[in-house]
Amino acid sequence: MRPDQIDVAPDGRDPAAIEAAIERMVHRFYDGWRDDDLLAPILARLDDLDGHLQIIVDFWSRQLLGTDRYAGRPFPPHARLPIEPEHFERWMTLFAAAARAELPADFATAALTKAGNMATAFRAGLFPLRGLDGRPMRLPPG
Ligand code: HEM
């Protein structure tokens, strides 16, 4: 089992400083999200925003530092949300700004690569078809 805290970050830097940067990044990202006309309604659906923020901090701690605090499955909650193709571009823009502002450059690059790969996988899972207009679309209900 992997640890919930680690002694040495992957590059030898102080993991506590990276953990603090991850926490700042997540809060900055969600502050931008709350103010964004396109994405704010999706966030407003959450009953427990503080609990969600902690899950996202734990997720990035796992991805960037190798801790084991996140053990969930990220895709299923997204399938239940009214996410449209255009939401992804905005999500990535806000996330990239927060990651670059708060994380050391190499960690920001790693986070953006991970988020980009997951966005590609999520889009493929959410929108497996294309409509007659060429636009990605969900499977018809039922
Ligand atoms: C259009 C883009 C996206 C939107 C609008 C979105 C929105 C959300 C929302 C509202 C939740 C909470 C769901 C719930 O608890 O019911 C969530 C969970 C989550 N999202 Fe996203 N998301 C997007 C893309 C991504 C991407 C690209 C990643 C990759 C880093 C990601 C990672 C996660 C993770 C790890 C969770 C926590 C899942 C869990 O509870 O275990 N999301 N997302």
Percent helix? 55-70%
- The value of Rg in angstroms is 16 Å
Strand order of the largest sheet: 1-2
Which stretches are low in confidence, meaning pLDDT under 50 for 5 or more residues running? Answer: none
Structural shape: elongated
Overall residue-averaged pLDDT value: 94
| Helix-strand category | mainly alpha
From the N-terminal CA to the C-terminal CA, the straight-line distance is 40 Å
**Major sheet: size, sense and barrel closure?**
2 strands, antiparallel
Strand content: under 5%
Specify the oligomeric state: single chain
Continuous helix count: 6
Bound molecules: protoporphyrin IX containing FE
H-E order: HHHHHHEE
DSSP summary, beta strand count: 2
Descriptive overview:
This protein is mainly alpha-helical and 142 residues long. The chain is built from 6 helices and 2 strands, in the order ααααααββ. It has helices at residues 15-34, 40-43, 49-65, 75-79, 85-102, 105-126, and strands at 129-130, 136-137. It has a two-stranded antiparallel sheet. A hairpin with a 5-residue loop joins β1 and β2. α1 crosses α3 (49-65), α1 packs across α5 and α5 runs antiparallel to α6 (105-126). The radius of gyration is 16 Å and the shape is elongated. The N and C termini lie far apart (40 Å). Protoporphyrin IX containing FE binds next to α2, α3, α4, α5 and α6.
